[in-house]
Fold each of these.
Amino acid sequence: MANFTPLSAAIGGALIGLAAVMLMLLAGRVAGISGITAGIFGIGAIDRGWRIAFVAGLILAPVAAMLAGYQVPPPEMPASWLLVIAGGLLVGFGARLGGGCTSGHGVCGVARLSKRSLTATVIFVGTAMITVALMRHVIGG
Amino acid sequence: MLALASLVCGFIFGLGLLISGMTRPTKVLGFLDILGVRTGTWDPSLAVVMAAALAVSGIGYVLAQRRPQPVFAPKFDIPTKTAIDTPLVAGSALFGIGWGLVGLCPGPALENLATLSPPIIVFCVAMAAGMIAHDMGYAKRPAAPPSGALAGADG
């Protein structure tokens, strides 16, 4: 477990939890990124303001880190454009069909002790692990 | 004030993803590669991120909802669905496949737009297209639900 970073994981995770609690306390909303984002595109949506502001805050975090002198390297992405596009489509469509993603189901839903969200989380972690196993150890290996 | 509060929440959420390393697809894939247990390369960090986030949000939600209403909104808007139905199962399964292919879920994908990396921009455009494709299909169904369902049932 050479790559295990428990301290930064715990601090970062606590901040994610804090942000979710603050959004509930201040705006009365669950911090589900896919739901927040999809609502920006919604036809006839009337509450775009807070959604756009949340996503803007999300994007401003690494900008602030860069301005403060921290290195934020571009993420390592698959070389195949086909994989990038297929991944994006599946993540977007799947999150909407399933009613949430890692944040909405995995953090906010499980925190509310929702069986629905717990089920979703077990399923998407499961299919993601199977996908990585196939890509790395069957197709790639 | 609602927008400013939301901006601050997004910012803190983004800092959490950044500090925990969850904006890096390779770090996420290191967790999802469960077979890495055999070779000692498995990275349990994502589980720690989830556990810490749940510890704070689990307690915090209970305390926050003791108020009669949110600070800057008229009411708490909490998902009401409880059924474990086919869309939940199928959607989550598809979402997981996409997550496993690239190592990005919506939060880190959007946050990484700050790096102006071309593959990130393409991923985010594809993700938005996937969302819109689903929501437009939903809107076209004969018995279209009220707009709340379009905006996100669970999160």
Note: Helices of chain A lie at 6-27, 33-41, 48-67, 81-97, 102-111, 115-139.
Amino acid sequence: MWAVLLFLALVGLGFFFGRINEAKHFAYLDAREAELAHITLSNTKYIPDGITNSVFVSGNVVISIDYFKRIGAALRGLVGGRMETYTTLVERARREAIVRMKIKAQENGMTHIANLRLISASVFKNAKTDIGSIEVYAYATALK
Amino acid sequence: MRNIELTNLETLPGRTIVKHLGMVQGNTVRAKHVGRDIMAGLKNIVGGELTGYTELLTESREESIGRMTEEASALGANAILNIRFSTSSVSAGASELYVYGTAVVVS
């Protein structure tokens, strides 16, 4: 009985706070991306003319999924199909990592970012308490 | 230790490569922290960033980079080109962060 109530409470908490957190995070990302849009981003190795300075920049983030979505994903895993819950989690992580990297480029007064690379890992996946989290690491060379 | 320039491009803008010194690498294996894990467990209910883990991985990568630059410095390099990172899960709750690149002398 108590176990069921606890489960429902966790799902409820996850549903409400998870939604609020996600909406807040997307709003934050939209705002920062607009602010940082003047720094061009490329994943090619092309160096524009007149560049004389470079600095290595990177950004990373570990984001966890909420309880409600984890249960939803577990159910989805039974029938297959598109996992919308994890899609937004990974999107948030990638955008956040890129924003953090761009902030570092801005601090250094850089105007371009070349050779962007993204790597992701579910680092602590093998752990006993498997938490649905992902790390995204973005690195590149900022140019001026 | 000399100041070593890092880049993941194959050249350094505005500089010329004088000498290639071969590949340099750095790695570190880190285990997660129980205290951080408890916090992560709580955070896992409502979702969001696991700040403790973000910091842990940032520190670990810095350590790997530190080891790589030490190696480059010992070879007499002043820049490392074409840096790449990779991550692997070694065992439950531990991860390896590996970084590698090519040490060069630039003028």
Note: Chain A touches chain B through 49 residues (CB under 8 Å).
